Amino acid sequence: MSTFNVPTREEVSANNQAIFDNLNKALGFVPNLYATYAHSDTALENYLNFSNAKTSLSAKEKEVVNLAVSQVNECIYCLSAHTAIGKMNGFTDEQILELRAGSASFDAKLDALAKLAKNVTENRGRADQQVVENFLAAGYTKGSLIDTIVLVGDKTISNYIHSTTQVPVDFPVAQPLETTTI
To answer: Which residues form a coiled coil (predicted)?
Structure first.
């Protein structure tokens, strides 16, 4: 277990203090994982710019990818955060568990997306050709394929930071997938 602290506003650079202030205004708090990025003078700003960049994926589609990737990477912090965000995007608890498992029986297009995100993550970028073909056949474009892979990378960064630092989860903790009946 790591001994990483979650830095306070007073412990970070002036640039990161301004970002903390903006996060507090937007979210009402600074998530511990974001605060952990602020150990670096540049990583928090760089990550937020990357994470909030334009994409062909909708907010709901982004959550599909975030949940599938975080499950493969076994990141309880990101699973917990994206379970909460997934609910805000209209997914039910049951749908979120299914998305974490890499499928979506309730929506054929989202199913293809979840399967791709899981497959790309499990295979470290070497997606199975049939999974890619199914993704494209579901109505996604080659641009959407690239955007999905970029999002896999985005989420993997946060998964790895939490896996290394083990900072406390400050969202309702997601239930283990193994206890479900999917």
So the answer is: none
How many residues are given for the chain? 182
- Confirm whether 181 is domain-assigned: no
Whole-model pTM: value is 0.94
Collapse the DSSP code of 90 into the 3-class scheme (helix H, G, I; strand E, B; otherwise coil) and give the result. coil
Please choose, from the candidates 155, 58, 61, the residue with its C-alpha nearest in 3D space to the C-alpha of residue 107. 61
Q: What is the pLDDT of residues 22-70, one digit of tens each?
A: 999 999 999 999 999 999 999 999 999 999 999 999 999 999 999 999 9
User: Do 3 and 165 touch, CB atoms closer than 8 A?
Assistant: no
- Sequence-distant (6+) residues with CB within 8 A of 26 are none
Burial 104-139 (b: 16+ CB within 10 A, else e): beeeeebbbbbbbbbbbbeeeeebeeebbebbeebe
Contacts of 139 (CB under 8 A, 6+ apart): 109
| Overall domain count for the chain | 2
Do 170 and 100 fall within a single domain?
yes
Cβ-contact 171, 80 below 8 angstroms? yes
